[in-house]
């Protein structure tokens, strides 16, 4: 050592508390309650709030009203801080704007522009919350990361694997957004709300007098301030110099006959009925978005239904990749009721899901999750 | 938990002597310094004593000192004041640097929107501006040069006397933000040849919300606030008597203990720096070769995120900082570190320790245990650091 320092009255070198758990805090009632629940169990906690998106980035999307209940609004950050203060544990704001844009916002826009209907929340979980945030939690001395997700994690002692399960309160279940988690990530994560109902969470929040106990839930995609995706995609593409194909094109039937014009592919999603710009005798829906030919294929409800789909980037969450097909239930969007199906492995990290009965509007870009009862068997992106 | 505070460039604790001097003015001595009666006269006397104390710190005359709400107001007042006193704004030019504090940078950007042309001088890897660059940047329509004395992140001290000379020769007004050098370096407005100098109370052990601006006599400065006739009309508003008294006392303490404080802080800072260089592999000191304030140490520890290190250290009882905090408290990449040539990743892997008058040797010894352990922990989990 090159330095000689006197060691008189040396302040004790502090170590972080053993068993320290980081809580990902959005400033909402769910994640705030997580902190309260853990604290009541005697677990030492540190709160981390991610700064993900700067709302000033696209000023044209700002309404005239105050920026309330939006992702990363200062109000939410302050709410998280107030909760930490109320419960008396350390809290920090961490900047993940760059990762969020690179791994969530940009892919979302690019997918949308390529005719798919992406889900940003899954990427945010897999690539931001349970990746750099979990890493940072561990770097600062926390052993685990707890979040306000409604889902459950269980260790299967016979297989040694961590299993992801649906929330006890199925109406709040968020396992649909968590299928990308690896065994390593699951082993270090806690979802303390998985056994609770939303009402139970509110009651707990009120009981410990959390300042956010009565805060309304945010339902919209967090970085789209007004819920208008199309407007966001326009604004973001313009600011990033991403070329937008605003070219009009044909609306065709499955047989290829032209029955109308569309206003630019990114204005449409599969299953959409309204806003097609013409009235037909029977209800007509968007069946497919054909980026190659710049056209929208439409048809009747029957044509929207299919029994088979393929997923890619498959993650076998709770089980080892199976050799034989498995029977269970599959879910093809957040609000879809899981329906009986089988899943079989395909080469190239893909899988095929075959439903017993046809399902409506299987949409490329969304995720399909395969369950065995409450257990998430696998998930992947619909091709 | 016993906490160690090494973030004195962000703010300093109020010195007990400063607090003691202020207390009467927060209770019994409540007079308005503009009132005719005895209450007012006693407050006035206290304000004028403080003005003398601040003037003495920078070797100015008391009537050249006005009290403000802090460094940001002083910077705004000086820069807008000079520009707005010029007859026409359209063709004006001002010169500053890329590493100024936001109080100067954002003021310059606002002036650009108003039609003023601004030159942002680059700095070398040690954070120093070149007087050659400055000479070349001068134009006939240049009205103001504003260059900070010491940088808040690096501690780099700019060659103000040379810059002042160039400004004087070119007959251009010269402002300097001396918020980070007061109390750490000798400040003499005659030697530095400045026309305007910004000071902040809370960086020199006075409270927050009080600052001062030196305005050399006959510097035409458009007033910034409009109101009563307080402070010769330069800065209307009932004086913050207690704050002003605190700033005065702090200025006096800074002047009297400057040499002793500077020597002591430099020795402890060097111990810290050498110790960390020896104990943390691959570490480096930023702006190491520049003249620096004696209390500032900015280091890069490749493979870590400074943001995570600051949090990890805070959880272990050590307060230090990285970059500049935005309103939410999240960290943004430092414009100063990128200006001296660090990559974004290197800037992110950098951290600042800033010592104070009351920092002890024992604290530095503790820091030399805490930091290497925390950096090692971060690096173990770093996706980019390989050893």
Describe this structure in words.
- The complex is a heterodimer of chains A (383) and B (387).
- In chain A, strand 2 (45-51), helix 2 and strand 3 (91-95) form a beta-alpha-beta unit.
- Chain A has helices spanning 29-40, 74-87, 97-113, 120-139, 183-187, 198-207, 229-240, and strands at 21-24, 45-51, 91-95, 144-146, 151-155, 162-166, 189-190, 249-253, 258-262, 285-290, 295-299, 305-316, 326-331, 339-346, 350-360, 367-372, 375-382.
- In chain A, the strands form 4 sheets. A 6-stranded antiparallel β-barrel of chain A has the order 12-15-14-13-16-17. A 5-stranded parallel sheet of chain A has the order 3-2-1-4-7, sandwiched between helices.
- In chain A, 23% of the residues lie in helices and 27% in strands.
- Chain A has 7 helices and 17 strands.
- Chain A is of the alpha/beta class and 383 residues long.
- The model of chain A is unreliable at 1-11 and 64-69 (pLDDT under 50).
- The radius of gyration of chain A is 23 Å and the shape is globular.
- With 387 residues, chain B is an alpha/beta fold.
- Helices cover 40% and strands 14% of the residues of chain B.
- Chain B contains 12 helices and 14 strands.
- Chain B has helices at 16-22, 38-58, 71-85, 102-113, 131-137, 160-170, 189-192, 241-279, 306-315, 335-339, 344-348, 361-380; strands at residues 4-5, 65-68, 93-97, 117-121, 142-146, 173-177, 196-200, 211-215, 284-285, 296-300, 318-319, 324-325, 331-332, 350-354.
- In chain B, strand 3 (93-97), helix 4 (102-113) and strand 4 form a beta-alpha-beta unit.
- In chain B, helix 2 packs parallel to helix 8 (241-279), helix 3 (71-85) runs parallel beside helix 4 (102-113) and helix 9 packs across helix 12 (361-380).
- The longest helix of chain B has 39 residues, at 241-279.
- Chain B is globular, with a radius of gyration of 21 Å.
- The two termini of chain B are 33 Å apart.
- The relative contact order of chain B is 0.16.
- The model of chain B has no long low-confidence stretch (mean pLDDT 94).
- The A-B interface holds A 1-3, 5-16, 20, 46, 49, 51, 72, 74, 77, 90, 92-95, 97, 135-136, 138-141 and B 1-2, 4, 271, 274-275, 278-279, 304-305, 307-308, 311-312, 314-317, 326-332, 360-366, 368-370, 373, 377-378, 381-383.
